[in-house]
Amino acid sequence: MTFSLLHPIPGDEAGVFSVSELNARIRSILEGSLPFVWVKGEISNFRIPASGHHYFTLKDQQSQIRAVFFRAQNRRLRFVPEDGLQVVCQGRITVYEPRGEYQLVVEIMEPEGLGALQLAFEQLKKRLEAEGLFDASRKRPLPVCPRRIAVVTSPTGAAIRDMLKMLQRSPYPLEVTVIPVRVQGKEAAGEIASALSVVGSLRERFNWDLVIIGRGGGSIEDLWPFNEEVVARALAACEVPTISAVGHEIDFSISDLVADLRAPTPTAAAEWIVARLESVQRELERCREQAAARMKRIVENCGHRLRLLQRGLRDPRRRLDDLRLTLDERAERLRLAWRRDLDRRRTLHGHLVGRLGLCHPIRQIEPFRQGIAQLRKDVSQRFLNRLSFLRHQLEGAAGKLEMLSPLAVLSRGYSIAYRLEDGRIIRSSSEVELDDTVRLRLAEGAMECRVTARQ
To answer: What is the value of pTM for the model shown?
Structure first.
C-alpha cells in the first residue's frame, strides 16, 4: 500500500485547494492504491431504495465503513442480505465527492461460514414457512387410484427412463404425460413453474390425477431450480395433487416441503404409484372374496328357509276354501251393517226436515217486516214534530231580529251621521268643525249636510 503527502503546488494561487479539488485528489489516491480489497464484517442499516441498489454499513467491534452494492451486480445474489448477517465482500474503495465520504463499492458478496446457496435455501424456507406454504392443512389428499399422471422433468434424463420402467409394473394400464422442461440452469425454474401452470390450465382436458416433478441426483447447484420461489409458489397454486422427487434420498429441496408428498427419488415416486395401485388391487380382491363368501352364506340361508317354509306350507285348495267362507261371512256382515246405517240416516233426515220447517225464513222475516213499518211511522211523526218546533223557533228569532235592526230605528225618524273623510260614525258634536261636510243615513236614502252651528 502506497500513500503520498499532498503539498501545495509552487506558483499556485496561495497554494490552496478547493473542496472539490481536494476530494478528487483523495479519490484518485484511494482508487489507485486500493483497486480491489476483501473486507469482512456485519451488515447493518441495510436498505433498498426504488433504484434497486443495496446501501448498508459494514462494521466490526471497533469500526465501520459505508458500502454500496449496485443493482447490476447484486442481481446475481442467491441470498437476501439482511441486518446482522456476517459477510465477506470484494470491492473497491472510492470517495463520494459531493459529501466527501469514502465508501466500499461491492462487486462480490458471500456469507461468512455458510454457503450462499445454503443461506438462500434457509431464508426462503423461513419465509415460505411463515406464509403457511408448508402447513399440512393446505396439502391436497393424494388419489386412491392414480391412473393419469403428468411428469414434469427432462425428457432425456435417466430419471424419466427409470420412472417409466417402474410404472410398467403397474397392475393397471396407466396414462403418462411427460411435460419436458430443463431441470438445471438459470431458465429451469421458470420452465418448471410454467409447466405446472400448464397442468392447471389443461386439467379438465387430460383429467390428470397426479403430477410428479423432479430429476435425478446432482450437486446443490444442479438441484437449485427446485429451491426457487417461483417453483414453490407454482406448486402451491397447482390444483392437481403433486409429488416432489428431487435428487437422491439425502437431498432435500423447497419443492419437497411445498408438494403434497415428498419422494426420496424419482424411482421412489413411481414405486409409490405402483404400490398404491397394487394395494388397491389387493383391497378389491379382498372385497370380492368377502362379497362372494357373503353371497354364498346368503344363498345357503335362503335355501334353508325355503325348505322350512315348504314343510309348513298347507294345501292351497284348503286355504282357498277357507278364504271363500271368510269372504261370504264378511259380505253378509257388510250388507247388514249397510242396512242399519241406511235406516239410521233416514230417521235422522226426517228429524232434520222437521227442524228445518220450524226455522223457515218466511216465519222469521214477517215480525221484522211489521217492526220496520212501525219504525217508519214513528220516524215520520218525529220528523214532522221536529220541523214544526224549528219553524216556531225561527219565527220567534226573526221577530226579535226585526226589533233590534237599525233599519227599524231609522224608520221611526232617526238618522246616522258619518264623517266623509274616513266614514266614521259621529257620536258627539265635538268631533266636527264648523263648515265640515257630513253624511246623514236615513231610513230611505242619504244626504250630505254642512255644519253651520254646534251645540
So the answer is: 0.46
